[in-house]
Design a protein that fits this description.
The protein is an alpha/beta fold. Helix content is 59%, strand content 6%. It has three domains: 32-87 and 102-155, no CATH class; 184-443, no CATH class; 453-559. The protein contains 26 helices and six strands. It starts with a helix and ends with a strand. The relative contact order is 0.12.
Length: 560
């Protein structure tokens, strides 16, 4: 059975089944997190990364078009660097500087999400948009590339295609990793345990760079295991350099993960006085690091000084231990352990594993021990670091910061089983992976599906000829509602904490009989509703829709 099931055709069949699972869940995705919409906007919106409520040609854009992006390439780069650091030296049109909300058309909203024909393959715009953010640009380059192929179209399938490519590629890297672990017969259980987990499905559904980062993390792990097998001799430098460079340009948290592994390998080499090997190892890390900084110098500030960098701390008052517990709870649930019976069995299995490993410890070779440590230790150190520096920790959608660990956790579980079972390891791990995956589907659902948003879009389509008033209390979360703004006749976005609602006393609403109002549920509904009615002179309202999950908003029809 061992030789039979490990044949390539069964691996391909497993991959096809896992891809089918991903394709099923993408059909269930009806809405977006604001960061997901930011992926499209920052990749596709010309020279801006956020959809503004006060008109496209505001002060910064006016400066950008007429002053910054002038001259040859060298002058443009110099001006951009100067502009991002301090734009006070550029002349502003004060009339454009006023952040006064205005009604914006559905066409303007759509332009944030899609690429127009004249802007296809405009990578300079993507680079500039990311220079204003805290993430490297590679993921956005690829989103821009796919969007350019389908210019004028906004679809959840654009980034899904990208994520699916890196997901399938990750499965093939898992196959290579199991081969480096000298247990390629366990490839299918490892693929199932990872690929059919709720955590992996959530990674593919989340339209950000985390599936891409996971792929490069797996590539680096594979190279490291090969390094151990080759007695720490680096034989293919280019793959190290390419992997590290592309991972660096995908997500900075990738650097945290590989830095941990780098330190572990370095400690071993230096303690064993293998300095020549260490210098070669160091060189294949320095070359891509310097290359990445030269290509994207803004990374220095992003990594060391931004709120997402090493100087950042999470924005909650919980202790480090509470944050660590949060991440382990996420792993426990996203791998299908969300069931008290399964949890008890898992504890009993842990005790059994500990006893069996202790009994068989003398049988473990030095090479196997190194591999086990390289798999397991970075998981715990990475979680500890993320508990300190990752932002918004404890909120519903923060499992993203540990997504890079999910395949390594699955591989570690399967690899550890080889030290426990002398016979029938394949059968046991295969059954374990399947049962755990089924339990995950029964007791949990992938995140980032936003199923309730289907009702929101049905409401928008039914009222596409009406004006839309949207009330929230920050500067960014309105991006999740971009598909709505691209559906209603015109929309106005109001920040309840800073805007004067008298803005609503205008000809557009005065000459209409009714409009649609959206108020985020965390605001005082009665207070905001009264402000809107008072400002517009409208007297009647009807609750059309109220959702407390995902969308977290109440929709009203306001009439005279």
């Amino acid at each position: 059975m061992k030789n039979f099931i490990s044949r390539n055709k069964y691996i391909i069949l497993t991959i096809l089944i896992l891809v089918s699972i991903m394709c099923y869940f993408i059909t269930q995705k009806n809405g977006f997190h604001e960061d997901e919409i930011f992926s499209y906007g920052s990749s596709n919106y010309k020279y801006d990364n956020v959809y503004r409520w006060y008109g496209y040609a505001e002060a910064d854009q006016d400066i950008l078009y007429n002053q910054v992006l002038q001259g040859n390439l060298k002058e443009k780069i110099s001006n951009i660097t100067k502009y991002i650091k301090d734009n006070s030296s550029f002349q502003k049109d004060e009339n454009l500087s006023k952040e006064i909300p205005i009604f914006r058309t559905k066409e303007e909203a759509k332009s944030y999400l899609v690429i127009e024909k004249n802007d296809i393959f405009n990578y300079f715009s993507v680079y500039y948009n990311q220079a204003r953010d805290v993430h490297p640009p590679l993921f956005y380059f690829l989103v821009h590339f796919i969007s350019s192929l389908f210019y004028g179209i906004f679809s959840k399938y654009i980034i899904f295609i990208l994520n699916l490519i890196f997901f399938v590629s990750s499965l093939f890297i898992i196959k290579k990793i199991m081969k480096e672990l000298k247990h390629d017969e366990l490839t299918i259980p490892a693929m199932i345990l990872y690929g059919a987990s709720i955590g992996c499905i959530s990674t593919v559904m989340f339209q950000r760079m985390y599936m891409m980062m996971t792929f490069f993390g797996l590539c680096y792990l594979c190279l490291t295991l090969k390094l151990i097998n080759d007695n720490f001799e680096i034989k293919k430098k280019r793959w190290w350099i390419i992997t590290i460079l592309l991972g660096f340009l995908t997500q900075y948290y990738f650097c945290v993960y590989i830095a941990i592994i780098f330190m572990l390998i370095s400690i071993y080499l230096l303690l064993n006085k293998q300095f020549k090997k260490w210098f070669k190892y160091l060189r294949v890390h320095i070359i891509p690091a310097i290359s990445g900084i030269i290509f994207y110098p803004f990374s220095i500030e992003d990594i060391f000084f931004s709120y997402r960098g090493l100087g950042g701390t999470n924005e909650h008052t919980k202790t480090i231990m509470e944050n660590i517990n949060y991440y382990f709870t996420q792993i426990y649930e996203l791998f299908g352990f969300k069931n008290i019976l399964i949890f008890i069995i898992a504890i009993l299995m842990f005790i059994l594993i500990f006893k069996l490993i202790k009994r068989n410890l003398q049988k473990i070779s030095k090479e196997q021990l190194y591999k086990m440590l390289i798999l397991i230790i970075p998981i715990f150190i990475y979680i500890l670091i993320m508990s300190k520096i990752s932002p918004f920790l404890g909120e519903k959608y923060t499992s993203r910061y540990i997504m890079i660990l999910f395949p390594t956790i699955a591989i570690s579980i399967i690899y550890m089983s080889t030290f426990i079972f002398n016979k029938n390891t394949l059968l046991v791990t295969l059954l374990f992976s399947i049962i755990l995956s089924i339990n995950g589907f029964i007791n949990n659902t992938p995140t980032y599906l936003y199923k309730d948003n289907k009702q929101v879009m049905e409401l928008a389509k039914a009222n596409s000829d009406k004006y839309f008033v949207y009330v929230f209390d920050n500067y960014f979360t309105h991006l999740s509602s971009m598909p709505e703004f691209a559906t209603y006749k015109e929309s106005i976005i109001l920040n309840n904490t800073i805007h004067d609602f008298d803005i609503l006393n205008n000809d557009k609403l005065r000459n209409s009989n009714e409009f649609i109002l959206c108020i985020k549920n965390w605001l005082n509904q009665e207070e905001v509703l009264n402000k809107v009615l008072t400002s517009t002179g409208y007297t009647d309202y009807e609750v059309l829709l109220s959702l407390n999950t995902d969308v977290e908003a109440t929709y009203y029809k306001i009439s005279k």
